[in-house]
C-alpha cells in the first residue's frame, strides 16, 4: 500500500458510550496498538455478574498485528481486563512505574507470570513498526498518569487519557502543557478527549483543596479521625498522612486494598510516610483518640469493606465511639448512592460524627470540567475531534463543546463501541463495525452467561419459582406419583398452604386433561401445566413466578 | 387520669430514619390521631416487591382510640398507604382540597367507596376529643400543602409537614409565617420538622427560578420542546404552560399520571390553562415544531413511561427528531440515577438535545435547606425538637442544627420508627417501643413476603437454581428414575452440556452413598446431594446456585 492510500483506523472497543472498560485499538497498516485495557463493574440488571470486560474478538482475529498495549494509568477501568486479555494476546504492555506496579500485583493474583511489562516515563518514546508513541504527563486522581501521542506517517493521534488540569497537584507533576502546545503547534490529526465530566460547568477543583479541608477539619476534631477514600487515590492518602503528622496523630491503614496500595505506593516512592507515624491496626487502642487517624477502604459502602464493618460494629480492631469523626472523602460512583447513604446512616447510629456532604471540599473529581476541556481543545486544535470515556450524553456534551470552539461538526466523531473511524490523508469517515460489547465474568466463567440466563435470573428474582414434578408410567402415560410442588422465592410456604394445595389441584387438572385427550408430547403437557397454573397464580396473588414442570418416567 | 398525670405520646410509624411512608401517631389519653399515611417505593434488594407500607399493628390494636387521619399533602409518601390502612381502620380523613381530590382518585382505583374524606382549609380547626388541630399553609412541591398544630391540654405539638420557605411560590401561597409566629409566641411544646434537606447548606431556590429558566430556554428553542417532571408538581406544569403561551406554543399532555393530575388540578382550579392552548397528543403533528410543547411523565426514567418510550422510539404519537429539546425538570430520586441517565443517553441517540445538568435551574427541591430550617426553629422555638422525614443522617444533621441554635441536646429527640416519645408536663423521654417496620406489598399480597422469600429471591437472582429430581422405589429406596437435572439462571445449558452431565454424575454418586449406607431419611439424602453438588459446582464455575433436590416416591 502506498503511503498516499494509507489509513489510520481508530477502533473503539470500550469506553465509548459508557463509563468503564476503556479500550481503543489504533491500526495503521499492519500494526495495531491498544490503548488501555479496562474492566467495568456490572450494572444492577446484570444479576450475579462479577465484572464486565470488553469483547476482544477483533483483536484475537487480528492477533498477529497487535504489537503493544499502552496503559495511561492504573485504575481498574483502564487496566482491570489485562488478566483476561493477556491470556489471549500476550504482547508487551507499557505503562508508568506505578501503573506497572499495580498491574504486577493484579497479574500475580491471576497467576499470570509471563507478561512482558515495560515501564516508560513521560516524554519517553516507544516504537512499534511504523508508529512511534510518546507518553506525556497528565494529572488525574491516581499518581503517575500519562496521555499518549501516537505519531503515524499520516499525522499524530493524541489521546488525553483521563485528565484534569490540576494547577497544584500534590506531587507537583503538572500536566505537560508545553508538550501539548508543541503537538498543537506541529498539528494534531485527531484528538481523543476524556468526556467524563463534559456535562459539568466550570473548573474541577484542585486536589490541594481537599488537603486544606482536611487541615481545617483535623484542627477541629478532638476524637479519632477516620478517613475513607478510593485506595488508588494515593495523593488523597498523602494529604491525610501529611495533616495527621501536622497534628501529631499516628496513622493506621485499614482494609486489604488500602494496605496493598499504600504498600506499593510506599515501595515505589509515591507516598511519603515516616515510619514512626504508621501504626498497626491492633495498636490503635494504645493511643488516645486525639492521636489517631485511620485510613480505610469502604468509600463506596461496599458490604464487605472495613468501613462497612465498622458501621455495623463488626470490625475486629476499630470499634466506633462517640467523639469519632468519619470523613467520606469520595463521591458515590453512579449506582452506589444507596449503599453509601446506608453506611453513613449506620455510622451515625454508632455515635460517630460523619462528614459526607457535597460541596464542602472533602472530595474533588479527577476529571476535567468544561472550562478545562475547552483549554485542552484550544491548546491542541486538532483536525478531527473524538470524545471518549463517557456515556453517550457526555460524548455529546463534549462534542458540542468542541463545536462551540469552532471545530466543524463534520470533523467531530461521536462513536460508540465497535464503530470504526477511518482517517485518511484527505478525510475521515465512519467505516463499518467490528464486534464490540460486554463480556460477562461470573465466577470462573468468562462469557458463558448470556441473555437467556440473565432473563431467567431476572424472573426468578422478581417472583421466584414454582416447580411441579410428576412421575408418569412410560407405558400408559398414567401419573404414578405427584404432582408435587416445590416453591422458592414465591410465597412463604407455611403461611400459604392452601395456595400450594390449590396449585397442586390445578396442576392435576391440567395433567388430567392431557391424559384424557391422549396428549403425550412432553412439551405439550408442560405448556398446559404452565398455562393453567400461571393464570391461577396470577389471579390469586398478582405474581408471575417461573413455573417449571418436570416429568419423570418410570 | 388527672390532667397533671397526662402524657402526650408521639409514636413514629414511618418516615423516621427513612425517606418515605411517613406516618406519625399522636396519642393523648384515649385519643389517637394519625398524621399522614404514606407509602415507600422498595429499595433494590426488596426483589419483586411493588410498594412498602408502614406496619400499623399498633393502630389496629388501639383501633377504638384512633379518631382521625390528617394529611399534610398529596404526595405518595404521605397518602399512598391510605387504601391499605382504611381497609383496617376506617376513620375520618382530613386534608386540603387538592389532597382530598388526589386521594379520591386513588381510593377509586382500589375500589374503596366508604371512606369519610373531609376537606379542610388553612387556619381551619378540627376537634377530636380533647385535641384540637389547626392546619396552616406551607409551600412544597405540590400545591395546597399544610402543616398541623395539635393543641392538647399539655401544650401544642407542631408538625411542619414537608416544607420549603418559598418567598415567591407560583400560586402566591406563602408559608403562613404569622401563624407560625403566633404559635411561637404562645409557646410550642414540641416541634416536628422536615429533615429531608437538612444536609444541604444555604437556601432552596424558589420555584419561580425554574420558571425563569424555562422562559430563557423556550426563547432559544426553534424546535419542539418536551418537558418532563413529576406529575404532581402542578406549579411546575403551570410554569411550562405559562411560558408555552408566552411563546405562542400549544401544549400537549402525555402519560397517564400526567393526564390524570392535570385533569384533577384543572377541575379543582389549581392550574390555569386556556382551552385553546391544550391540544391532543394525536394533533401534535398538525403543528410546526416551534409551536408545540409536550409535557410528559418519565422524569425518573421509569421503563414504561411516556418519555422512556419516546427515547426508545416506541411512542405512538411522539417520534423524536433532530431539533427537539427535552428538558428533564426533576432530580433522580436516590436509586433512580442510572435509569434517568440511561434515558438521557437514549434521548440523545434519537437526535434530541437534552437539558438535564444539575445547577442550571431546570429543577429545584421542595424541601428546606439549612438556612430555612434555622428560620423555622427560631420562629417557633419549641421546648422539644424532633426531626422527622429523613434517613438517620438527615435527622442527625437536623438535630445538630437545632443544637447550634441553642436547643439543649437533652430536649432534642432523634427517634426511629416505633420509638415512643412521651411528653409530660415536666419532662419528655423515650418510653418503650411499638411494632413498626416495613410491610411488603407484592402483587395482591400484603405482608406475605418475608425474609426467607427475599433471601431465596436474592440467591436465585445471583446464580440461579439447579433442580435435581430423582424417583425412588418406596419399598427398597432404589432409584428408579433420574437423577435428572434442570437449571435456570445458572449457565446456558446448550453450551455447558458437559457441566450438566458431570453434575448428574455427582448427584448419582451422592445417592449411591446414601443407598449403600442405608440412609433413607429424605432430609439426609437431600443434604448429601446439595453438599456434593454444591462443592463440585463451585469448584468448576465459581458460582453457588441454589440446589434443590426433589425426591419422588413410586
Structure description:
Chains A, B: An RNase that has 5'-3' exonuclease and possibly endonuclease activity. Involved in maturation of rRNA and in some organisms also mRNA maturation and/or decay. Chains A, B: Zn(2+) 1 binds at residues 73, 75, 77, 140, 162, 389. Chains A, B: Its cofactor is Zn(2+); Ca(2+). Chains A, B: Ca(2+) binds at residues 48, 50, 442. Chains A, B: It is an enzyme of class 3 (hydrolase). Two copies of one chain form a homodimer. With 554 residues, chain A is α/β, with parallel strands linked by helices. The first copy, chain A, folds into three domains: 3-202 and 365-446, Ribonuclease Z/Hydroxyacylglutathione hydrolase-like (Metallo-beta-lactamase, Chain A), CATH 3.60.15.10; 207-355, 3-Layer(aba) Sandwich (Rossmann fold), CATH 3.40.50.10710; 451-553, Ubiquitin-like (UB roll). Helix content of chain A is 31%, strand content 25%. Chain A contains 15 helices and 28 strands. In chain A, the strands form six sheets. An eight-stranded mixed beta sheet of chain A has the order 8-7-6-4-3-1-22-23. The first copy, chain A, has a six-stranded mixed beta sheet with strand order 9-10-11-12-13-20. In chain A, strand 7 (93-95), helix 4 and strand 8 (117-119) form a beta-alpha-beta unit. The radius of gyration of chain A is 29 Å and the shape is globular. Chain A starts with 7 loop residues before the first strand and ends with a strand. The model of chain A has no long low-confidence stretch (mean pLDDT 93). Chains A and B meet through helix 10, helix 12, helix 13, strand 26 and strand 27 of A and helix 10, helix 12, helix 13, strand 26 and strand 27 of B.
